[in-house]
């Protein structure tokens, strides 16, 4: 994961913001933005972006910061209607990149620090997914600074007077930076761990990827990527693994029938249970019971 570190002061500042509405078949333009950063936040649909040959698929809740002086473009047309907020910002200070987040040491104030602010770093991941509880806040901040609407449906670009003062606009922008900089790997870890805990607590029930998506407010593709990155398998494969492990325990510790155990761990069909069990363990549930259950 690439992080962008902004050395402050001076603080980065907002140039302008807007909203783009793309039809199916529309594609982001190819361009180089001199000196300005471009932040894209997808609210619905899917946007395919390329920045210096690095490809990104942006889904609802995903954001991407495109650094200045690099070529960025859409590498594939939208395959559905897509809406995204964006903003351009600039810094007169130094910025750098690394593969890890940077933090600033908070020194205790003393009498020699009354009149000059120590340097500090704002560290933001270039690409990420907004936590569900922050989605509406970021959406609102972006709307408050929006002065441009690019509507591909009507083939028009509209410009508006700002609804907030210049100072308020900069404050909203800093709130956006603060929100993005607060998103670390620990939160992503918690999100994936929460999915695992949910599967462990509910494996007896019928669970689909759509169920998980609705409960955790993430796009299914993002859930698959995140869970697979952590556990090496998709959420449904992980669910199957949890069910098989629970079945092994029941086969060893209970006198329930194979059919009952299959139902207890979430398999509605006993033949499917037997097939999946043998595929993963190498023997049928009955053979496993005979080899492991203690004799009276």
What is the domain total for the residues? 2
What is the N-to-C order of secondary-structure elements (H for helix, E for strand)?
Answer: EEEEEEEEEEEEHEEHHHHHHHH
Low-confidence stretches: 185-189
Q: What helical percentage do the residues reach?
A: 25-40%
Strand order of the largest sheet: 12-7-4-9-2-13-14
User: What is the CA-atom radius of gyration, in angstroms?
Assistant: 25 Å
Profile the largest sheet.
7 strands, mixed
CATH class of the largest domain, named Mainly Beta
Reported by name, the CATH topology of the largest domain is Jelly Rolls
Number of E strands? 14
Number of contiguous helices? 9
CATH superfamily of the largest domain: Regulatory protein AraC
CATH structural architecture of the largest domain = Sandwich
Tell the overall outline. Answer: elongated
Q: Specify the structural class.
A: alpha+beta
Please indicate the percent range of residues in DSSP E strands (runs of 2 or more): 25-35%
User: First CA to last CA: what distance?
Assistant: 56 Å
InterPro entries: Cupin_2, Homeodomain-like_sf, HTH-like, HTH_AraC, HTH_AraC-typ_CS, RmlC-like_jellyroll, Tscrpt_reg_AraC-type_HTH
Keywords: DNA-binding, Transcription, Transcription regulation
Organism: Anaerocolumna jejuensis DSM 15929
Domain HTH araC/xylS-type: 193-291
């Amino acid at each position: 994961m690439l992080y962008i570190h902004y050395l402050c002061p001076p603080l980065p500042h907002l140039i302008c913001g807007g909203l783009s509405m793309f039809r199916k078949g529309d594609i982001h333009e190819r361009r180089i933005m001199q000196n300005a950063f471009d932040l894209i936040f997808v609210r619905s649909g899917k946007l395919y972006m390329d920045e210096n040959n690095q490809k990104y698929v942006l889904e609802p809740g995903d954001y991407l910061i495109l650094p200045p002086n690099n070529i960025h473009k859409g590498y594939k047309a939208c395959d559905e209607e897509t809406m995204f907020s964006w903003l351009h910002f600039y810094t007169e200070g130094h910025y750098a990149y690394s593969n890890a987040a940077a933090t600033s040491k908070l020194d205790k104030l003393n009498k020699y620090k009354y009149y000059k602010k120590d340097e500090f770093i704002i560290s933001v991941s270039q690409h990420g997914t907004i936590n569900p509880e922050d989605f509406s806040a970021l959406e609102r901040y972006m709307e408050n600074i929006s002065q441009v609407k690019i509507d591909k449906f009507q083939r028009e670009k509209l410009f508006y007077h700002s609804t907030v003062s210049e100072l308020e606009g900069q404050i909203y922008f800093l709130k956006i930076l603060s929100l993005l900089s607060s998103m670390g790997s620990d939160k992503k870890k918690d999100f994936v761990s929460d999915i695992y805990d949910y599967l462990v607590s509910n494996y007896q029930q019928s669970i689909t990827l759509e169920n998980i998506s609705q409960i955790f407010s993430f796009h299914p593709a993002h859930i698959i990527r995140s869970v697979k990155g952590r556990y090496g398998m998709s959420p449904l494969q992980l669910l199957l693994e949890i069910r098989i492990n629970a079945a092994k325990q029941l086969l060893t510790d209970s006198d329930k029938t194979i059919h009952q155990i299959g139902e207890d761990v979430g398999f509605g069909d006993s033949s499917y249970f037997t097939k999946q069990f043998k595929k993963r363990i190498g023997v049928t549930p009955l053979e496993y019971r005979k080899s492991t259950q203690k004799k009276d």
